[in-house]
Amino acid sequence: MHIAILSRRPDLYSTRRLAQAAHQRGHKVSIVDTLRCYMNITSLNPSIHYKGKKLPLFDAVIPRIGASITFYGTAVVRQFEMMGTFCVNPSLAITRARDKLRSIQLLSRKGIGLPITGFAKRPDNISDLIKMVGGAPLVIKLLEGTQGIGVVLAETNKAAESVIQSFLGLRVNILVQEYIKEAKGSDIRCFVVGGKVVAAMERKALPGEFRSNLHRGGSAHSIKITPEERKTAVEAAKIVGLPVAGVDLLRSDRGPLVMEVNSSPGLKGIERATGKNIAKMIIEYIENNAKPISNRSRYEG
Hints:
By secondary structure, the protein is of the alpha+beta class. It has helices spanning 13-24, 70-82, 91-98, 100-109, 126-132, 157-169, 227-240, 268-274, 278-289; strands spanning 2-6, 28-32, 37-40, 47-50, 53-54, 60-63, 86-87, 117-120, 138-142, 151-154, 174-178, 186-193, 196-204, 219-222, 244-252, 255-262. The strands form four sheets. The protein has a five-stranded antiparallel β-sheet, sandwiched between helices. Strands 2-1-6-7 form a four-stranded parallel β-sheet, with helices on both faces. α1 crosses α9 (278-289). The protein is globular and about 60 Å long. The two termini are 26 Å apart.
């Protein structure tokens, strides 16, 4: 098979591992810079050009779309879909996952466990918004933030009011969420491939820090998850529409709570923590699900 990996940087760990795994299984791989693609949106004959040439019809595409290029990146994925190419994660699902508000609304509608969450643009009564999520301590998040950036823990109601007023003064969108004390600064990343949790790790924050992201200096180790946690992770990925996803959970007194569903989960931390070859599992998923390009109908929608 000829597999394309949509990635801005071929030197990134996840990109290199996916290319390596595909090569080891006998596939041809092309790493394509998403932003250097340009599209011919023609009825019945869509195409994508790259570096002055028309791209071939790939058998499959693995989108690795960074948060900062979501709009253009999903447009490129959508163009591949129109050309009949099998995309590991669909453009619509990537868009859902990147919109944190939309994704938690979808999960809430289906009864998935979530931290109590408030959302407001210009609340007349900030104290009521704080009360709505259970009061301080609480977490305030930028809607567009990633890797723990733009996430603040407010330990008192007065501090929460001050932070919320500051964020709203900058005219940014924020979520206000209850702080799950019993999680003790740790969370669980479940890696889902094809409707199964293939690996799970627990991430712990540094002392004095509440964000457990590895990019923030947190540590990680392999963990055995419960059947309920496994079911929650699989259902969350399915509801958002992602065959390959990183689902972040918190352990609470009322069961697992979903923090986020990630459409481009990194491989480095979880492969090193669990010792599992997740890149190979993703390539195997493609082998089991991608049909020859000549046998596929073009995307409609």
